[in-house]
Design goal:
With 283 residues, the chain is of the alpha+beta class. The protein is built from 7 helices and 17 strands.
Length: 283
Amino acid sequence: QWANVVRWEMRTRLFLRTTEFLWQEGHTAHATAEEARAETMKMLEVYREFAEGTMAMPVAAGEKPANERFPGAVSTYSIEAMMQDGKALQAGTSHYLGTHFAEAQNIRFQNEAGDLAYCHTTSWGVSTRLIGGLIMTHGDDDGLRLPPAVAPWQIVIVPMLRGKPEDGALLEYCEAQAKRLKEKSAFGESLRVLVDKKAEKSAEKRWNWVRRGAPLIAEIGGRDMAAGTITFLRRDALRTGDKVVSQNKPAEEFVGLATGLLAEIQANLFREAKARMDANIRT
């Protein structure tokens, strides 16, 4: 289930430890310890695969020491991510509870011999703490950097509107590119593309999307339209030193490359974070 939880916290930290939060939790009951342990490890792997494959957030997955075990559990497992300040973040947990809770709450079943036996139970969960982990793993001094697999808008097109009659033709050009891009797919879904039509200066709109972490930001003006090109930024490789790096490609080529670029950005964000985590692990 997904549920809101309220708990007392002495010191709250945005996303990480708040009085109220949204989490996903599961509880299962099994006839044998082997079945319950298999379920515990299966869910740990579900969380690991989601963190690394979808969030591009590398984690260490394994068993917690006895002093960090969930009270009443026989074994507690977790995925641990490393934030940019060098601190570990427990990002998800999976517990094998043995029959401890079944004995306390009289959770029994009729076994094959016809006798009543206590269930072996599990519990596991992740929460909105993952959002905090995502921000702290990938963010930089310019704002968010979102992995394309989870970015609300994977490609944002910013028309350089000037409040003149030719704006209509430019918007049509941008909408045409957006339509072609939406016919492409990445991560099992059609591309999520937005044309930002707000009547603001294009530079302000561009930096607004940089701060929000859109993976690809295309800024299209009259010259691009006349040349049939698209100028764009990659959020994962925004700068060389202090200089912002933009690329210009024929529109047809950009549309063809979009899916591959998003996959490359996803892999690059994971690679950066993995190198940082590995450099800080000592045995």
